Amino acid sequence: MCRCTVRFSDRNGFEHSTEVQAASVYEAACRAWSNFKSVEESAEESYKTKEFVVEVHQDPNVFNVELEKLLEWLDRGRRGHHDTPRKKWLRRLLDASIWGPPTEEEEARGRSK
After folding, report:
1. Which residue range(s) make up the domain with 21?
2. Phi, psi for 12 (deg, rounded to 5)
3. Which pTM was predicted?
4. DSSP 38-94
5. Mean pLDDT in the chain?
6. pLDDT value of position 14
7. How many domains does the structure of the chain reveal?
């Protein structure tokens, strides 16, 4: 798990950012998007962004995660045998504002995959 800063710019050029702990760039994007969706000032704009910028603090790296590609990847194999527990867990992270945050058991399963 690494500490990451995830940010995006809204249509007016205002930058929104949040800090998350994540084991992968996609996990960081999912955790951050869940955070953005739960804040009134960034909720609507987060759906309209093209990408999230993920800065990993442990290994100073910056990654651009295109929202459309993230959603396509999460949806790929969704109903078949190619769906993985990791993808299910990441989808749950995105829906945290609806279902609540993942349980400790889900967190452990998600980190182990």
Report:
1. 2-107
2. -95, 5
3. 0.67
4. TSHHHHHHHHH-SEEEEEETTTTEEEEEEHHHHHHHHHTTTTSTT--HHHHHHHHHH
5. 84
6. 95
7. 1
